[in-house]
């Protein structure tokens, strides 16, 4: 029996990039059913390796050109113990972000409601109150309560038959716009990880380029394979990099 190891073959990564670029150029709201779970796992891991290489390359180049301080990572390491940091940064926040930016790429009333609620919390937290997603401060309930109320209202309305059908048709006709919006909003909202000054705003497209690339891959795997694939990759990546911060490097 011949055993295939696609992850060690350069041609395999070329094929993955071709599929990814093809999807980005013309996004289709279609699940790939002909691939087995094993092949989907291989593809997800392969795309993860591509993402890591790209992100490290861009981050390394930026260090020589412009490297502003990431305020979010500093804030979290100060506020949480190592175990809590892994729980919040490695599990809770990835789940929150995947629900916010990827879950509703496939339309479903509960998906749409959850995304609307979490996106509202995100906007109220970062641009409006200039707080942190994981920070329970004096603005916390002002951020949470409107998000929960909106979530419930949207679920009730989008579950009614006429509105549900209207939204389903909108998703089919305008999926390209929805996919691009999810990618760009995910990337550009990460500018709030840095100090909001004129220089950082001018550098926004470059500073958030790794997040934009991550979003295109995560959106593709969410639509083509299922929500669990980008979610598990997001969690694994965060846990890995957070764990590395605990190593004694002195």
Automatic annotation (TrEMBL):
Keywords annotated in UniProt: Membrane, Transmembrane, Transmembrane helix
Transmembrane domains' residue ranges: 45-66, 78-96, 108-124, 140-157, 177-194, 200-219, 231-249
Superkingdom, natural source: Bacteria
Protein name as catalogued: CAAX protease self-immunity
Taxonomic classification: Bacteria, Pseudomonadati, Bacteroidota, Flavobacteriia, Flavobacteriales
